[in-house]
Specification:
This protein is α+β, with helices and mostly antiparallel strands and about 550 residues long. It is about 35% helix and about 15% strand. It has 17 helices and 15 strands. It is elongated.
């Protein structure tokens, strides 16, 4: 009552100073709405121990000492914009703490604490963790706390969908994330690690453990994630394969959550469909990554194929091993190879290959079918390798047009064939096309450098020189195009990770998973025609 009376008194004083009370309240309410727009839907009040929705959070503020002090501050600083004062107070009051943890047995859900005081409930199971978390947040000076167990209505599909899609942003905007026996801390800017007994890790009382060199180095050793990634992580598609490797050891109570928990890391939003099974959840995530970014590194894995699409893995742990690193040609080696190719590769053939690959479309998905641009090599012989049959795998000697002979092991039992004993089914080894082989400039980097360009008086040249260019300039352009094409051919002559594909009845293909990376190499890099079979294959 005292706060309410004080609130009314301050509003009367504002009216006496000819300041509209409704205008003040509108400014404050606008600040609140902006602040809560990036906050979770429900929060635990660390003072009262009650779960609060948006309305209850706002009412708590209006009856708080902070609200009354805000009105006093506006009165005392009539020369300052009200919005600036309101924003500062509101932002401080509504700061919230997130808990990153692993779900355990007997976690308390929303219905267990709704309309109850958390601190008064009998300690048992997950409630001890909940009470300890709220106490730590309160003692750290924060009014609000969030934990995914009881701050989400798990039975409300719309709310669950919104919460899962927004969780990454909530962690990112939190004032502090408390990490308790968990490995989910990339999104948060400020974190503190707590041990099982709720003591600070290494007794480090610094406000942000991301600034602790010792803790960050320990995390890097334990997770394999670079320290810089912990501190400066940004969501998005860049480095997709590396991020999948980070997540490869993740374990969740609900199988689909392995994929759903990664939506924020990649900056995407997809429908949450519990019951679809883990393979389809992961498949939809990988499909979106490839479709949006054109990055085919997500296809680089060894393991079991997914029911969603045979080019995708069935499990996230198929990304545990880093992608195979093939040796890169040095600039001197490229120049040496290009010089030798000039004597053997015709200009028109080199330019034709470059143009074909330059105009290849990006990979895309449609109805779980991958449309994959690639250079394909027809397999002409499959021969069982005696003595190398393992308990669950078979070894095959493989010959393909234009490639060196190679050995493939797979769990699938294939029927041997050769040119003399052909098969009606087509088998291919393919090099998935990667536009990075063209060495095109990164236009995003160019945009960042635009600010450093000198300003010219005019974009037009007023001289009388011909716009068409001289014959010498045209010859130089043709020479540069030829050189680019030869550089591409030199890189195509290096070992590459190949996919083994088997044609199906409808003309589509399926990827046959192998036990190890399939490393193939073009037999004769000067034989351009062997690399001209550039196609976009439909893979189930």
């Amino acid at each position: 009552m005292m706060l309410t009376s004080a609130h009314g008194m301050q509003l009367r004083k504002l009216r006496e100073k000819h300041i509209s009370a409704s205008k003040v309240e509108a400014v404050i309410r606008n600040s609140i709405d902006v602040q809560l727009d990036t906050a979770p839907l429900r929060l635990l009040n660390t003072t009262t121990g009650r779960l609060c929705d948006r309305g209850a959070q706002i009412n708590a503020f209006k009856t708080s000492t902070e609200y009354n002090e805000l009105l006093l501050s506006i009165m005392a600083h009539l020369d300052l914009p009200m919005r600036r004062i309101a924003d500062a107070v509101v932002a401080t009051y509504f700061r919230y703490v997130m808990l990153s943890h692993r779900w355990e047995e007997n976690e308390r859900l929303l219905h267990d604490i709704q309309d109850r005081v958390v601190y008064k409930l009998k300690q048992a199971g997950g409630l001890i963790k909940l009470q300890s978390f709220c106490n730590v947040a309160r003692h750290a000076g924060y009014h609000w706390a969030w934990i995914d167990t009881c701050c989400i209505d798990q039975n409300n599909h719309v709310e669950l969908q919104r919460s899962l899609n927004s969780a990454f942003a909530w962690y990112h905007h939190s004032a502090l994330t408390i990490v308790y026996l968990s490995d989910n801390f990339l999104a948060s800017k400020i974190i503190r690690f707590y041990q099982q007994d709720w003591t600070l890790y290494l007794d480090d009382y610094s406000p942000n453990h991301k600034e602790s060199i010792q803790i960050m180095h320990e995390l890097e050793d334990a997770t394999g994630i670079d320290t810089h990634a912990f501190v400066a992580f940004q969501p998005g598609m860049r480095g997709a394969r590396e991020k999948l490797q980070w997540a490869s050891t993740r374990v969740t109570t609900v199988p689909e959550d392995i994929a759903y928990s990664l939506f924020g890391i990649f900056g995407i939003q997809l429908p949450i469909l519990y019951g679809e099974n883990a393979q389809y959840a992961l498949g939809r995530l990988l499909q979106e990554i490839i479709a949006r970014s054109g990055d085919i590194t997500a296809l680089d894995w060894v393991g079991q194929p997914s029911e969603f699409n045979s080019c995708l893995p069935a499990n996230i742990f198929s990304y545990a091993a880093p992608p195979r690193a093939f040796p890169c040609l040095s600039e001197d080696e490229i120049q040496t190879t290009v010089s030798s190719l000039r004597d053997t590769v015709a200009v028109d053939q080199a330019l034709k290959l470059y143009t074909l690959l330059e105009n290849v479309s990006a990979p895309c998905f449609a109805h779980c079918r991958l449309h994959l641009p690639c250079i394909s090599f027809l397999i002409t012989e499959f021969k069982r390798r005696p003595g190398l049959v393992q308990e669950t795998s078979f070894a095959y000697e493989v010959k393909a047009d234009g490639l060196d002979d190679l050995l493939i092991t797979t769990e699938e039992k294939l029927i041997p064939f050769s040119r003399l004993r052909p098969t009606r089914q087509t088998f291919l080894l393919v090099l998935p096309w990667d536009h990075r082989l063209l060495e095109l400039p990164d236009f995003a980097d160019d945009v960042e450098r635009l600010g450093d360009w000198p300003q010219t008086e005019s974009l037009l040249d007023d001289s009388d020189e011909s716009a068409g260019g001289s014959p010498g300039e045209e010859e130089l352009a043709d020479s540069e195009s030829y050189s680019r094409a030869l550089r591409l051919i030199a890189r195509l002559g290096q070992p590459f990770g190949a996919f083994l594909l088997a044609q199906q009845r409808g003309g589509e293909y399926k990827r046959i998973a192998s036990d190890y990376d399939i490393v193939a190499r073009v037999k004769d890099v000067t034989s351009i025609h062997s690399m001209m079979n550039i196609r976009t294959l439909e893979i189930l």
